């Protein structure tokens, strides 16, 4: 209920263009908790775990929370369960000592699994660093909250998504990287002073906080 919870929106598709539906959805998946030891990786299309991947796995394992763990997409074919998406998450769960992980299991051939892998990893919607920052503020991350508060104290708001300069209002900015670097180099007092100077010198102007 949006009236009871401001800031929440429902899935309203009335503004979307119509879609030409292609084919059938295929068999419905099952949501199962599968043993990590029973899952397999098809090396014909799955990435090898390199240094950056290993670092990511160690980070996930060290900071493991079920709320941050989405179900692993698994293809079931001829009695074998292949991981389509979620290889790093599964490694992290094993490193954490977990024996089972939640899996979205779909019955499909290896060729269909490879096609699903390409679709999942090739058609993702990139998430802006501004959106991630907004989520960190909402979650109470200390560094994000401190920067957000410093900006608001000087009448500045960091947008939560990229916006062209001409569509910004005075006091709005997308220069998140600059502000974060400022917090590291000159601290909250320095950032606030800089923002105060800019806002005082350019009252009511848009696009000056770049």
Give the arrangement of secondary structure elements.
Layout: E1 30-35, E2 39-40, H1 51-62, E3 72-77, E4 80-85, H2 87-96, E5 100-107, H3 110-122, H4 129-139, H5 142-153, E6 157-158, E7 172-173, H6 176-185, H7 187-201
Helix pairs in contact: 1-2, 4-5, 5-7, 6-7
Quick recap of the structure?
By secondary structure, this protein is α/β, with parallel strands linked by helices.
Annotation, overall tally of beta strands: 7
Helix amount, in percent?
25-40%
> What is the number of helices?
7
Q: What summary fits the major beta sheet?
A: 5 strands, mixed
What form results from the Cα inertia axes?
Answer: elongated
The secondary-structure class comes to alpha/beta
Low-confidence stretches: none
**Gap from first CA to last CA:** 37 Å
Based on the model shown, name its key terms:
single chain, 210 residues, alpha/beta, five-stranded mixed β-sheet, two-stranded parallel ribbon, 7 helices, 15% strand
What does this molecule look like?
The chain is an alpha/beta fold. It has 7 helices and 7 strands. The strands form 2 sheets. Strands 1-5-3-4-2 form a 5-stranded mixed β-sheet. The mean pLDDT is 90.
């Amino acid at each position: 209920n949006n009236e009871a919870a401001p800031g929440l929106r429902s899935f309203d598709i009335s503004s979307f263009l119509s879609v030409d539906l292609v084919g059938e959805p295929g068999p419905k998946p099952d949501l199962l908790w599968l043993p990590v030891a029973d899952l397999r990786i098809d090396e014909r299309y799955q990435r090898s775990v390199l240094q950056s991947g290993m670092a990511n796995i160690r980070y996930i394992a060290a900071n493991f929370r079920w709320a941050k763990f989405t179900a692993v997409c698994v293809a079931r074919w001829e009695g074998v369960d292949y991981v389509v998406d979620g290889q790093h998450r599964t490694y992290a769960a094993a490193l954490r000592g977990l024996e089972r992980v939640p899996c979205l299991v779909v019955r499909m051939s290896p060729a269909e699994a490879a096609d699903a892998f390409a679709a999942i990893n090739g058609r993702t919607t990139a998430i802006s660093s501004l959106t991630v920052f907004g989520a960190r503020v909402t979650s109470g991350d200390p560094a994000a909250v401190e920067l957000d508060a410093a900006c608001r104290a000087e009448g500045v708001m960091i947008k939560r998504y990229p916006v062209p300069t001409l569509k910004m209002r005075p006091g709005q900015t997308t220069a998140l990287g600059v502000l974060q670097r400022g917090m590291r180099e000159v601290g909250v007092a320095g950032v606030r002073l800089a923002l105060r100077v800019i806002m005082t010198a350019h009252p009511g102007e848009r696009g000056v906080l770049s």
